[in-house]
Amino acid sequence: MRPKTEVYVNSRGIGSEGGLNCFCCGEPQSLASNIAAFVDSKEDGEDAVAMFISGAARLYPIRFGCSVIQVKIGACDAHFSQLTALHKLFVATNTLSKQVIDRSRV
Ligand SMILES: [Zn+2]
Q: Ligand 1 centre from 105 Cα, in Å?
């Protein structure tokens, strides 16, 4: 059943990455703070990316030919606390959904 409305995620923590938009305000960032989180499959990763506003999340294979997929989610400096909240929700629930995203943005 696709698209899934809930995806299993395993957050690796917060780092920095170029070329992501903020998941709250959508502003393009030359260097964005971001969460990197493992997902179970490419399909789960695509469903995860689709839950975010355009350009705020992207799939990154760990390396080509490898089945381990991670999703990266960007934030601007003004929304770093929302990114931290999202990371904490991932750690607490191992779940990504629109509801989880909304909870992180309050
Ligand atoms: Zn922002």
A: 10
Neighbours of 17 (CB within 10 A): 17
Distance from the alpha carbon of residue 39 to the mean position of ligand 1, in angstroms? 24
Write down the domain spans for the chain.
6-98
Q: What is the pLDDT of residues 23-35, one digit of tens each?
A: 999 999 999 999 9
- Fill in the amino acid letter for 70: Q
Residue 29 CA to ligand 1 centre (angstroms): 9
Span 34-90, pLDDT tens digits: 999 999 998 999 999 999 999 999 998 776 666 789 999 999 999 999 999 999 999
Taking the centre of ligand 1 as the mean of its atom positions, its distance from the CA of residue 40, in whole angstroms, is 28
- Which amino acid is residue 74, in one-letter code? G
Distance 76 CA to ligand 1 centre (A): 4
